[in-house]
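hey can u run this one w/ (2R)-2,3-dihydroxypropanoic acid bound, need the structure tokens asap thx
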Amino acid sequence: MTRPSIFVTRRWPSPAEEALSALFDVTFNADDRPLSKDELMAGVASHDMAAPTVSDVIDADVVAAGAAGRCRMIANYGVGVNHIDLVSAAAHGIAVSNTPGVLTDATADLTLTLMLMLSRRAGEGERELRAGAWNGWGPTHLVGRQMTGKTLGIIGMGRIGQAVARRAHFGFGMDVVFQNRSAVTGGAGVGARQLASVAEVCAASDYVSLHCAATAETRHILGADALAAMSPDAYVINTARGDVVDEAALVAALESGAIAGAGLDVFQGEPVVNPAILAAPNTVLLPHLGSATQETRVAMGMKVVENARAFAAGTPLPDPVG
Ligand code: DGY
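ok here u go:
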């Protein structure tokens, strides 16, 4: 009996590749380099299912090519689906799934990493030491700020926002305020206060961390007005998607000293990073590492396996999108 086929646009950690290969005829992208649009269209069209990642743009053309070919299911390797044209997929009757839950802890950990690196000037210190420019311990040398007792503002209090809130509150004694499009009850388990607007969160916080999905509504949710409400001692952290921050406004705020710094793991148009962001002062910049732990990347693959298996069996998807 022929097994359903699935096109996987990148390489995965081996346990997840093995689990997928045990059930399906799998085509992995042997080179593990980002594919061109033509390669994506050809691969998606010639398989029953496709498993892209955040680095693949699955736009209306790719969806249409898939629908005209064999593709009936897109099982995304990742939780964010802003790179997939969901409207086109629905119009063509292509099912979509994602991988919620399994990357919550890894992404929350990386958020705290960025907060700590900024607060304690860890990137600056490492660069100085490696450059041979360290002159020894000094009372005013690379003095940062402590996180303990400060206020964290969270934009988007879903799974990841709540995991960040717990780490900040229980680990560092931070107060938490947040903005979320729907009501979150019980103070998210950390006595967090829900505020009415992003600007109010910005005004109340020493750290503003973004954890909302990237949608038309959240594009540039942190823009010039919200940044203007922040204290000059406050930091912006983004581990969500580049599009949720207005990068031009962020650069202006960093350059003028309107905010103290920014820790960014995601960028508009990544992997190309706006040169103005690279040149801006007081930043810690990472190459989209939020989910990059062995445990999480295996678990993400296993989620794709579960969803593809359900689709092939004609049973409800565990993680449907749309
Ligand atoms: C996601 O899953 O959306 C991450 O950004 C990539 O792992």
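The chain is about 35% helix and 15% strand. anyway lmk if its weird
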